[in-house]
Amino acid sequence: MPSSPTKKTPVKFARRTSSGHVVSLSRDEDVDVAGEFISSGGPNDYANYTVHMPPTPDNQPYNAAAAGVSGGPSCKPDDLPAPPYRKRATRLSKDEGDFVGGGGGGDASGKLDRRVSVMKSPNNKSMLLRSQTSDFDHNRWLFETKGTYGIGNAFWSKDEVEYDEEGEPMRMTDFLEKPWKPLTRKVQVSPGILSPYRLLVVVRLVFLILFLSWRVRNPNPDAMWLWGLSIVCEIWFAFSWLLDQLPKLNPINRVADLAALREKFDMPSPTNPLGRSDLPGLDVFISTADPEKEPPLVTGNTILSILATEYPVEKLSVYVSDDGGALLTFEAMSEAASFAQVWVPFCRKHNIEPRNPDSYFGIKRDPTKNKKLPDFVKDRRWIKREYDEFKVRINGLPDAIRRRSEVLNARERKLARQRSGGEEGSTAAAVDSKSPPAATWMADSTHWPGTWAAPSPDHSKGDHAGILQVMINTPHHEPVYGFPGEHPYLDFTGIDTRLPMFGYVSREKRPGYDHNKKAGAMNAMVRASAILSNGPFILNFDCDHYIYNSFAIREGMCYMMDRGGDRVCYVQFPQRFEGIDPSDRYANHNTVFFDGNMRALDGLQGPMYVGTGCLFRRYALYGFNPPRANEYTGLYGQNKRPAPPPPEPPNSGSLGEEAQSMATHPDLITPIKFGNSKMFIDSIAVAEFQGRPLADHPGIKNGRPPGALLEPRPTLDAATLAEAVSVISCWLVRLSMQFHRLLSTESFIEQLACRYEDKSEWGERIGWIYGSVTEDVVTGYRMHNRGWRSIYCITKRDAFRGTAPINLTDRLHQVLRWATGSVEIFFSRNNAFLASSRLKFLQRISYLNVGIYPFTSIFLLTYCFLPALSLFSGTFIVQTLNMTFLIYLFLITTTLILLSLLEVKWSGIALEEWWRNEQFWAIGGTSAHLAAVLQGLLKVIAGIEISFTLTSKSANEDEDDIYADLYLVKWTSLFIPPLTIIVVNLVAMVIGVSRTVYSEIPQWSKLLGGLFFSFWVLAHMYPFAKGLMGRRGRTPTIIWVWAGIVSITVSLLWISINPPDGSPTDVNNGQNMMSPTVKSALDYGMRAKAKESPWTELHWESEVWHTAESEESSSAGIYQVGDILMMQAHYLWDILRGRCLRTSQDRAVILWRPMSYESSICKVKGMVMDFHWRFRHEVEGGDKDEWTNVVEKEKGKVDSQLQRRCMQKRGEFHATDV
């Protein structure tokens, strides 16, 4: 109850200064507060008080009278005006103690009672004061009095209603509408990395130009052939490096916003009140061809990961293409569809990653990490057992099919014999001729329409009917949740148990038709899926690539649905691989390409299509032009302008098409020949509309309205399935004889016996492009050539993963197929030289490099043999290792290393991965690329078709060592070139060292140059040699022993055939005693006109000097050789000094004056050696004392050898005299 009035208590706790700040005041200053708020208590109870709010925009007193409130008190002079958006303000009056609001009377008093209830508390001691500072507690006051913060999306009073400029009421929901957000954004590479990277590219290019010009201007006269080969190879390497480097100048990164995608397409909105998904439909393709090399279990795991991905179930359709038509694959897919009924809900319930069961159960980390449901362990244990049984069933399918077929074939043969035995006059031969073929039977005891184990007509790999089987029907458009007791062991209550549509497709094949391998199979799936589901987007996988990140498809869809996404033809994901050896010996991860080159292309017109893990726009795959495109003209595409609208398709006749072809680039012609399926043609416009981005922003062009894709898909019927079968068939009809007689016109027969693709543009402008074993690159090139752009989507968690061959033979065959396709591209109209003006300049350079890079193998193979040839011949690619050559070599190598470090920085690859890529570039370039060039030339010149071997994707069966295939050596002819390079360089190194060590005047600089480059070659070939040696530690010792014996034998044999320079093996051949420098002077000395001759009588005549055969003439030959050496030394020195004149004499005869052995040897010592080292000192530099000591040592060596040789010929040699 209220207390009796007491004496006024003098209090004053706060004051506002002129600047608007509120400060605490002393208790000694008095403030008289009177009114009904007087209560009993201690000295801290206050009867009256004044509240001064801080001058914030939301809490300021105002003049109630000015606001039109009757009876409102006047404001103090320092009161601030009310904010323009406030209609109601509150203030306590020190005079009346009344709460003044927007109205008066009883309402005001009631609100006062509610808002100042704290004041009426029996014990309100210090209720509005902070306990420590005695300051006014504004937060407490706002809470107790329900004071307002104003209006906005943080707080909005329910009692207050504001109006906008048009008089419409404003509510808090107006502020809750978030602004438009893009689905993706670009993340530029740091300028601190990219700018030095671009600068280094320019600097290295300048160094290369200077180096090559210096090499051209400074030939090696000692070995012109070696210099010529090396300079040609180096020029090509510089050109190839430039082609590879230019497209890397603008790398970028991209980030997708999955939360924004969910808000736009999956959350309730005015256009989507039920919150259904407004995302477009998606068709996923998986291709397989041979169940032996591509095991069905691998394909089944891929299917399971796709069925369980995080994408609207009703919008997802999955198709597997079995181009082999095998019953094993068909029944394995049926088993996978059955196991998916428990695997997919299990993944959704427990958020399993990855959703490939084989990969999930094979992870080494703790499976219970971040799992919170109590039944997870029980569910996982049961699912693991079900998956093990699923694998056993798959592994047992071949035997089950074989046993089933044997039993049913035996029954058929028995019935045939019974029918034939009842006929009169039947013989054993007749019975055998009527015996049914050995068929392959399905589980329902019917013939399999595809390929049989025992090939027969209509049932072989190249001759079988088309098959289309929908194994999981189109799901309901509303979620179907599980309920308790639905499954005996698993509880899927509240979990959506629907599965996406799943179909098996095997196109018809007939003899005499070119079915175009994988490209033809993909086009068949495009047509079949257009009839069945017609998803505006297509995602294709190889059978061994599975979804590792269940949200990856949504990230790819962000780029398609974002602003400007209508110009994106495909989104390419990087390929990641499992099962690779830790050292990645053969660069199977290929990170330099996927994280370097492809990321850089994303900054241009987009990455290339690499065959798998690619999200396509169906409309772009049909060969249409983008809604908007640009043209790039000028020398390097510096002029950009909007492309004109696509040309109208010709009305009829070939004349209109030819005129259109002449008026524009062939790739820009609008396709019109899609086949004779009206249902398929009608689906094109639907797919184009459904693939448009959401038109929820003025900047989005060519969009669709929100909510346009909420309608459920129609269910499949018999007519739709029949139409889908017809578009994958060859339409080859075998007519009965009577029907053939009735309708035997040629036109009717031709119409029945043609394929669906005949007289259409499939494979030419529509779908996957035919004519190359690398149909993926050609297909992507055609889209870019029309003006489309592509996106490279690198997710934080790997999007997809697959397998790669770790065996050397399989890896080389894979590279051979890629390189062969590149050679085909170079010799076709898909060459980038013939591209349209819609292709950017640097994008054109990248596609040009795709067609040119295999030809580098010719120059690479030659260059790998040059070090060995240099060591064999004792020469080098340059005349001397002078300072200029070494400086250029240092600068070029240093800039390459710096470029590699910066590329590693912006691409995220490791240095080891970069080095492995360089090594395998040399291995593949000298083997697979060279074979690809030869095959491509044979196809162009001789018309020989190219065949390739399907890469095996079967898992390793060795459980003890998962990398057992790495050490398996399977011989192939591709091993010959790199193996030859290794052996020749090893032998050349031994011979070069032996030649130099045993040479009288060793050429150490040339030896070091040859050894360095031979070591460079062998370092690149190390993974190849390691692959040939097999498992570590198991190389037989005899291999090393024989390798050493062969190398020593070959080196000694080479020395005996071509002895080192300066060894006097034959006195009759005076040139063998000459050093290389003196040899080079022979031509000059023999053709020089001497001004003075201090030692012999010299006559120039047109005769040939000869060597004597007798002992005396042999000694004279010694004199002759000595005089020739002296003459060479003297005249070459004069030539260098400019004191000799050349003449036109070609041959000479020297008339000799009798000399003693001593004088000859003395002249050799005094002239030849002194000249040689003087020449070296003048030309190459060096310390005078050092070369003087060397001269004296070499003089003694030459003196002893010449004396020994001369005394041997004269018979005066004795061992005691040496």
UniProtKB/TrEMBL annotation:
<dbReference type="Pfam" id="PF03552">
    <property type="entry name" value="Cellulose_synt"/>
</dbReference>
<feature type="transmembrane region" description="Helical">
    <location>
        <begin position="1037"/>
        <end position="1057"/>
    </location>
</feature>
<feature type="binding site">
    <location>
        <position position="287"/>
    </location>
    <ligand>
        <name>UDP-alpha-D-glucose</name>
    </ligand>
</feature>
<keyword id="KW-0472">Membrane</keyword>
<feature type="binding site">
    <location>
        <position position="517"/>
    </location>
    <ligand>
        <name>UDP-alpha-D-glucose</name>
    </ligand>
</feature>
<feature type="binding site">
    <location>
        <position position="518"/>
    </location>
    <ligand>
        <name>Mn(2+)</name>
    </ligand>
</feature>
<dbReference type="GO" id="GO:0030244">
    <property type="term" value="P:cellulose biosynthetic process"/>
</dbReference>
<feature type="binding site">
    <location>
        <position position="542"/>
    </location>
    <ligand>
        <name>Mn(2+)</name>
    </ligand>
</feature>
<keyword id="KW-0328">Glycosyltransferase</keyword>
<feature type="binding site">
    <location>
        <position position="323"/>
    </location>
    <ligand>
        <name>UDP-alpha-D-glucose</name>
    </ligand>
</feature>
<protein>
    <recommendedName>
        <fullName>Cellulose synthase-like protein D1</fullName>
    </recommendedName>
</protein>
<feature type="binding site">
    <location>
        <position position="293"/>
    </location>
    <ligand>
        <name>UDP-alpha-D-glucose</name>
    </ligand>
</feature>
<keyword id="KW-1133">Transmembrane helix</keyword>
<feature type="region of interest" description="Disordered">
    <location>
        <begin position="414"/>
        <end position="439"/>
    </location>
</feature>
<feature type="transmembrane region" description="Helical">
    <location>
        <begin position="224"/>
        <end position="243"/>
    </location>
</feature>
<dbReference type="GO" id="GO:0000139">
    <property type="term" value="C:Golgi membrane"/>
</dbReference>
<feature type="transmembrane region" description="Helical">
    <location>
        <begin position="881"/>
        <end position="902"/>
    </location>
</feature>
<keyword id="KW-0333">Golgi apparatus</keyword>
<feature type="transmembrane region" description="Helical">
    <location>
        <begin position="847"/>
        <end position="869"/>
    </location>
</feature>
<dbReference type="GO" id="GO:0071555">
    <property type="term" value="P:cell wall organization"/>
</dbReference>
<feature type="binding site">
    <location>
        <position position="294"/>
    </location>
    <ligand>
        <name>UDP-alpha-D-glucose</name>
    </ligand>
</feature>
<dbReference type="InterPro" id="IPR005150">
    <property type="entry name" value="Cellulose_synth"/>
</dbReference>
<feature type="transmembrane region" description="Helical">
    <location>
        <begin position="974"/>
        <end position="998"/>
    </location>
</feature>
<feature type="transmembrane region" description="Helical">
    <location>
        <begin position="195"/>
        <end position="212"/>
    </location>
</feature>
<keyword id="KW-0961">Cell wall biogenesis/degradation</keyword>
<feature type="active site">
    <location>
        <position position="323"/>
    </location>
</feature>
<keyword id="KW-0808">Transferase</keyword>
<dbReference type="GO" id="GO:0071669">
    <property type="term" value="P:plant-type cell wall organization or biogenesis"/>
</dbReference>
<feature type="region of interest" description="Disordered">
    <location>
        <begin position="43"/>
        <end position="81"/>
    </location>
</feature>
<feature type="transmembrane region" description="Helical">
    <location>
        <begin position="1004"/>
        <end position="1025"/>
    </location>
</feature>
<feature type="region of interest" description="Disordered">
    <location>
        <begin position="633"/>
        <end position="658"/>
    </location>
</feature>
<feature type="region of interest" description="Disordered">
    <location>
        <begin position="1"/>
        <end position="22"/>
    </location>
</feature>
<dbReference type="InterPro" id="IPR029044">
    <property type="entry name" value="Nucleotide-diphossugar_trans"/>
</dbReference>
<keyword id="KW-0812">Transmembrane</keyword>
<feature type="active site">
    <location>
        <position position="776"/>
    </location>
</feature>
<dbReference type="GO" id="GO:0016760">
    <property type="term" value="F:cellulose synthase (UDP-forming) activity"/>
</dbReference>
